[in-house]
């Protein structure tokens, strides 16, 4: 995906070489298969060996954990999208995603 960052979901990210290299290093070091967190381990275990989902929201583990959240909830002003993890996960910026740190905002 980083090799095609000029076509990132229809957008050219316009990254220079040093920025692209830094992002690739981060992604490699923090990939789910590194099992740095419980969530990473569970995501990795939910994937078949040949799977390469483009979005975390396409992984079986993510789908299972979020299956009971209504479509209207995702569109609520405090959430807005399935990609705004920090709207519900207090530890999203740390990347740990512990169950105890999850709070669904009142909509």
How are the secondary structure elements laid out?
Elements: H1 17-29, H2 38-46, H3 60-66, H4 71-74
State the distance separating the first and last CA atoms.
Answer: 35 Å
- For the CA atoms, what is the radius of gyration? 15 Å
Reading the helices and strands in chain order gives: HHHH
Biggest sheet features: none
How many runs of DSSP E, i.e. beta strands? 0
Helix-residue proportion: 25-40%
Large-scale geometry: globular
**Class by alpha and beta content:** mainly alpha
Mean pLDDT metric: 89
Number of H- or I-type helical stretches = 4
Q: Which blocks of ≥5 consecutive residues have pLDDT under 50? A: none
Q: In percent, how much strand structure appears in the residues?
A: under 5%
